[in-house]
Each structure stands twice: as C-alpha cells, then as structure tokens.
Design a protein that fits this description.
The strands form seven sheets. Strands 2-11-10-3-9 form a five-stranded mixed β-sheet. Mean pLDDT is 85; it is low at 1-7. It has six domains: 3-83, no CATH class; 98-337, DNA ligase/mRNA capping enzyme (D-amino Acid Aminotransferase, Chain A, domain 1); 342-450, Beta Barrel (OB fold (Dihydrolipoamide Acetyltransferase, E2P)), CATH 2.40.50; 462-544, Orthogonal Bundle (DNA polymerase, domain 1), CATH 1.10.150.20; 548-634, DNA polymerase, domain 1; 650-717, 3-Layer(aba) Sandwich (Rossmann fold), CATH 3.40.50. A hairpin with an 8-residue loop joins strand 17 and strand 18. Helix 18 (549-555) crosses helix 19. The protein has 26 helices and 24 strands. 36% of the residues lie in helices and 19% in strands. By secondary structure, the chain is of the alpha+beta class.
Length: 721
C-alpha cells in the first residue's frame, strides 16, 4: 500500500492493523497527520461554527483511525506533534476561561461486544471478580451542547461551554436566560459546579425555523446546531427567545460530595432544582444496560429532544476515583452510540419509475454516500405528496418542506430497508430553485396519468401499451412465486421485449414456435445465445406449462392481489373455470357472484373492485384469448386436516429455520387450517421461532402469545401432514 491511500476520504474508511502496518514509516506519518488535520477541521465546524461538515458516524471513523494509528505506529503522537484534546478552542467572540476540572469527552462503543469489553476492563483494573456485582447508571446521551454552570454559596456565578476541554467560553449572561438553570440553589455546598447538556426541543426547533423563514434568515440544520447557535448569541435576549433546555448529568468542582454514588448525586441535583433525565436508570449488569439501551432506542422517536446514544457510568464513586482518567476520557464511563444510519448528500435528480400496475414511483438519484457501510446512490421518494411535504392525509411532514433537485438532504437507511429521505438541509438549498413538478403524462409511454380521490398514488393509464408496465408484468409473471421459469431473468425479459418477441406474458409459451430452430428469425441469432442455451430456455418454459390455481392468479399481477389473496381465492373457487366465470359475473351490482366474492374471508372491498375491473378491462384479454390455450391450471385441492389442533389459528414464523424452509413451514401450517401472518399482534395465537428470532419474541410475550421452537413445531406436525 502506497500513498494512493491518501486520496481516500479518511472519514469513510476504517483502517485495519494490517493496512497500517503495511504502510512505510513516512507514509504512515503523513496519513496520520492528515487524519489529525481532518479531526481539527471537523471539531472547528462542529464546536465553533455550529455547521458540521461530517456526520457523527464519519467523525467516529476519524477518531477510530486516529486511535488505530496511535496504537500501531511507534511514538505516533510525539512524531507528529499532536496533543489529544476535547472539542475545539473557543471562538474569539467570548472570553476564554480555564475549567477548574477538565471537561472530558467519552469513549464510544458501537456494539454490544464493546460494552462487555468495557465492563471486563473495569473488573481487571479494579481486581473485581466476575461473581461480584458492579452497578452502573444508564442515561440517554443528549445531542446538544455541553455546559458547566458554577455556583458559589448557592448563587450562579459563571457558565462555560466545553470548548477544548481545558478552556471554555464564558456564556454566563446567556445561561441565565435558560429556565432549566436555576439562578440560586438552596445548598450549603460552597462551590458547586453542575455539568449538563443544553438542547432545543424538536417542537421549539420547528417553530424557530418557521420564524427564521418568515424573516428570510438562515435556517438551522438540526436542533443541536440551533441550540449551539442560540447559546452563543451576543444578545442574550435572543437566547431567551430561543427556548433552550438543560439536563444536568454530572459535576465538576465540588467543595464536598453530593452523595456516595453517581445515581444518588444526580438525585441530589434534582432536589436542588435541576432538570435531570427521567429515563436514567441504575443497572447491575451489562445485560441490563443493553436492555435499557434498546428500550431507549425504541422510544427515541417519541422524545421531544434528540439523543444519539446511551451513556453508561460506574455508579460507585469510590470505584470512579480508583479508575481515574485517560488523557481525554474517563475509564469509568462510555457512550453507547446508536447505529450510524444517517448521512447528508446531494439529490442530483428525481427519476420516475413505472411499475407493473402503472404506479409512478419517484426515485432520488443521489451523490453516492456511505451509510452504515453501504454505498447508497438512490432513495425512495414514495409519491407525489411526499415530495411536496405532505403525507397521504395532507398533513405536513418535514415541517411542510418540499424536496427539490439539487437539494442537500438527510438520507437514512435502517438495516436492509430501502434508503429514504429524512429531511432537507434548507440553508444549502440553491437560490432560485423550483419545486418539483410531478408528471401529468407517463414518461415511458406518454399516456395520461390519473390519481384517484384520496389516493396519493399517480398512475399511468396505458396498461400493457406502456412498455414499462408490460416489462414489469412479464418479470412478475416469470418470477419465483409465479410461473418460476428458470433462467428467464430480467435481462432476457427486457431483451426479448425490445426485439418485439414478447408483448404480453402469453408470448413466452409461443417463443419456440416463432423464434425456435428453423424459424426465419431465431433466438440463437442473438449474441451470447448458442444452441444449448436456447434449448435450455425452451425446456424451462415447457416445464412450467402446468401451474397451480393460486400461483396462476398471483402471476397475473392484478393490483391488490398478492400471494396471500391468491391462495384465499384459489381455496374458495377451486378451479380456474369457476373462478373466472364468477369474477366476470361479479361485475353486475347486487349479483350473487359479487356477494360471494365479497364474502371470501380476507378479501376486502378494494381487492374485490380490483379483480372485477381487471377482468372487465381490455388489459386481461390476453389471458383468455391466448394464455389459457398454452397452459394447464390445476384445481386447488384442499389438504386441510379437519381435526387439526392448528385449525383457524394465526401463526407467525420468525428467525432462521434450520430443519425446514420458511415456505415449507408456511405451506404445512396452511394445510393444517392455520393462517400465517408476518407480524405479531394481539390476534396472533402462536409464534414459531428459529435462530436469532429478534424483537418478535418480546412482543409475543407482551401479548401473551404462545412461543414454540422449530423442534417443537416439527414434533407437533408429526402424523398431521
């Protein structure tokens, strides 16, 4: 590895020990120096300018890399002349004051393993055995601005920002305007230094930005920046108007202790009139800490203030004193950060995709960005209303801010969920930009679009005449849960459609007659196709000429008719002939066929309407005019065991099943008369779990749902199926 690595964005890549050790000595020093420069610039942007250039996740990567270089490059800090510090030096606008006790930052942990390691390191340092309890406090990590308020003989005399940890900014006049900070406290403690976090509630943040917008002033990116900017106002009356809050969570200089432990000390601060966080808890094990972490993470969206993790501290103050400090962090505390799922990037374009049912789906084309280790270049924009800043009910989202091309946006990605746009960074919006105009004509075929009353979805009216709809319907038709034609993938569908060989799915079964061996135009004439590959394709097609009724109904791609609805319809009507005749007849209002279709358990009004409209329209003509002649649809044979112990029960499967597949488990459950659902509710009767079952187990226990292992499920099936 050479200096080419210097072209890498240092806040996007974590360097491994092997990579660092493979660098030459001079390259390692040069690269390490660049990392420290990046950290210094990021600290200034975050702590002084209140306009961060990097996300928390990117900054954490820089700190990780700094720590890795310090560990694996001999004498690293001394050789580059670097002294670890906290934050950044105060701006020249405020008096710099030295902290009597340094205001340190915390080490970060991102995984459960790191928290277990944190506890293990404490036990080793203190010589405490594993069978002896060490109690911890656990509290939300407020995403705000650290502040120290100093009282002498009960009177507030000074308030300092963290600054670089050694020197802070004197913002006493402004701190006096924060209602959560008492001007006097009833205590005989001569010197009392209370430390905490200044923050702005989300509702106050929205109101502030609305006011800024009305004044034509700069909008704040997030509540943390708004709080920092508000605390640093030279006119303290503006600070008062900004509605800042303050949570007390620690202390600095004290003339005597508040209490014997961390939790008791915080309770003492609450009694003195300080606002403390009601979500704080004392825990006796790492397992309890992690449980509390997950509880807070789940409640995160319901809070009116931003948090970015949970802080754990050793509760016993005598242990804290023995553990002491590293250069910039205490050994007795750690911040367990929430997963890095958010990044800011530029929206380059909005592209409209047309689905198989004609839905016009807007997609954000983004400047590629790394979110949680995945490079993201696209994000869903849902629909027309979402872009304009409304939900499907017309209620404002994102404060009513619309999304425009060339906007800078916050994008989030949770697990395997499709990336979504969370918010717009208004202060980065291009001057003179225009609101996005949603198409009134289909971009694929030029047909007019339609939007039903009360529906946020815009659709193309072109049907199979729309190439995008036709291609997507064919892809659906050959997919695994439909006809499952092996080897007939996306590229083949698109290629054959462009060549005019397939216009609707029924053409698939006539390919051999029209483009097979001996025909004027053959598939084998295409580049990449040989006699054997063509033969394999035809064999795959011919092997799928017989299909079950439920798969056949699903394969047609009828709007609102998914796999579950297709199964219910197949079981009700038994044969294709019966199904088709009854659905066609159901278009007559008040007919017995319509009443019968509407009475199918699990089939709602919207699905009924969609079925009737589909078979009444020209869109389905290819099904009866040509497809049925090429295939055989098997009747649905009920396998339900009438005396089944699972009859009419609702079952959910979760986790990784080892001895059976999810599809087979579902099939067996339905054969025993059960209904299979994907989510836990109060109506669920049984949860069958495999490995790594996730949160559904906890939900099942909350609802009193019976839980069964995979082995128990298979034992129960013995002799039934």
């Amino acid at each position: 590895m050479g200096l080419k690595v210097l072209n890498t964005d240092l806040w996007k890549k974590k360097f491994t020990p092997i990579e660092i050790k493979s660098l030459s000595d001079s390259d390692a020093i040069k690269l390490g120096t660049q990392i420290t420069i990046c950290i210094a610039q990021a600290d200034k942007a975050y702590h002084i300018d209140d306009s961060p250039d990097l996300t928390d996740a990117e900054y954490d990567i820089l700190q990780f890399n700094l720590s890795a270089f310090e560990k694996h490059v001999p004498g690293f800090f001394n050789r580059i002349g670097y002294s670890p510090s906290v934050g950044a030096s105060g701006s020249s606008g405020f008096e710099k004051v030295k902290h009597s006790v340094p205001m340190l930052s915390l080490n970060n942990g991102l995984t459960d393993e790191e928290i277990y390691n944190f506890e293990s390191s404490i036990r080793r340092f203190l010589g405490v055995k594993s069978d002896q309890e060490i109690w911890f406090t656990s509290e939300p990590k407020i995403d705000g601005l650290s502040l120290s308020v100093i009282y002498r003989n009960g009177k507030l005399t000074k308030a300092l920002t963290r600054g670089d940890g050694t020197f802070g900014e004197n913002v006493t006049a402004n701190a006096r305007k924060i209602s959560d900070i008492p001007l006097k406290v009833n205590t005989d403690i001569e010197v009392l230094e209370v430390r905490g976090e200044v923050f702005m509630g989300r509702r106050d943040f929205i109101r502030l930005n609305e006011k800024q917008s009305q004044l034509g002033a700069k909008l704040f990116a997030n509540p943390r920046n708004a709080a920092a900017g508000s605390l640093r106002q030279f006119d303290f009356k503006k600070t008062e108007d900004r509605k800042l809050g303050f949570f007390a969570y620690a202390w600095g200089e004290l003339s005597r202790p508040l209490a014997r432990d961390q939790y008791g000390s915080i309770q003492k601060l609450a009694k003195l009139g300080f606002k403390t966080n009601s979500l704080s808890r004392v825990c006796k094990s790492v397992d309890a800490l992690l449980e509390h972490y997950r509880e807070i993470m789940l409640s995160r969206s319901n809070l009116d203030y931003d948090i970015d993790g949970v802080v754990y501290k050793v509760n016993e103050l005598s242990y804290q004193n023995r553990l002491g400090f590293r250069s910039t962090t205490p050994r007795w505390a750690i911040a367990h950060k929430f997963p890095a799922e958010i990044a800011i990037t530029k929206l380059l374009d909005i592209e409209i995709q047309v689905g198989r049912t004609g839905t016009l789906s807007p997609v954000a084309r983004l400047k590629p960005v790394n979110i949680g280790g995945v490079v993201v270049s696209n994000a869903t924009l849902h629909n027309k209303d979402y872009i304009s800043g409304k939900d499907r009910n017309g209620v404002k989202i994102r404060g009513g801010v619309d999304i425009r091309i060339q906007d800078w946006v916050e994008v989030y990605r949770a697990g395997d969920v499709i990336p979504k746009v969370k918010s717009v960074i208004l202060e980065k919006r291009v001057a003179g930009s225009s609101s996005y105009v949603f198409p009134t004509f289909c971009p694929a075929c030029g047909s007019a679009t339609s939007q039903e009353l009360g529906d946020s979805t815009v659709r193309c009216t072109g049907g199979l005449n729309c190439p995008s709809q036709a291609i997507e319907k064919i892809k659906h038709f050959v997919s695994r849960k439909a006809f499952n034609i092996d080897g007939f993938g996306k590229k083949i569908v698109e290629s054959f459609f462009v060549n005019g060989w397939i216009k609707d799915p029924s053409d698939i079964f006539r390919l051999e007659k029209t483009y097979g061996p001996g025909c004027r135009v053959e598939i084998s004439d295409l580049e990449g196709w040989g006699a054997q590959s063509v033969s394999n394709l035809f064999n795959a097609i011919n092997g799928r000429r017989i299909i079950s009724l439920s798969r056949f109904i699903y394969s047609l791609g009828i709007r609102h008719v998914g796999e579950q609805a297709a199964n219910l319809l197949a079981k009700h009507y038994i044969s294709w002939k019966n199904f088709y005749a009854n659905v066609v007849a159901a278009r007559e209002k008040n007919s017995k066929e319509l009443l019968d279709l509407s009475a199918v358990d699990g089939i709602g009004k919207i699905t009924v309407s969609s079925l009737v409209d589909y078979f009444f329209s020209h869109e389905s003509s290819w099904v009866t005019s040509s497809l049925i002649e090429e295939i055989e649809v098997n009747d649905c044979v009920s396998r339900v065991v009438n005396d089944s112990p699972f009859l009419n029960l609702t079952i959910v499967f979760t986790g990784s099943l080892n001895r059976t597949s999810r599809a087979e488990a579902k099939l067996n459950a339905e054969a025993l008369g059960a209904k299979v659902s994907n989510s836990i509710s109060k109506r669920t009767d049984l949860l069958v779990i495999g490995d790594n079952p996730g949160s559904k187990v906890k939900k099942a226990r909350e609802y009193g749902v019976k839980v069964m292992s995979e082995a128990e499920w298979l034992t129960a099936l013995s002799g039934l199926v």
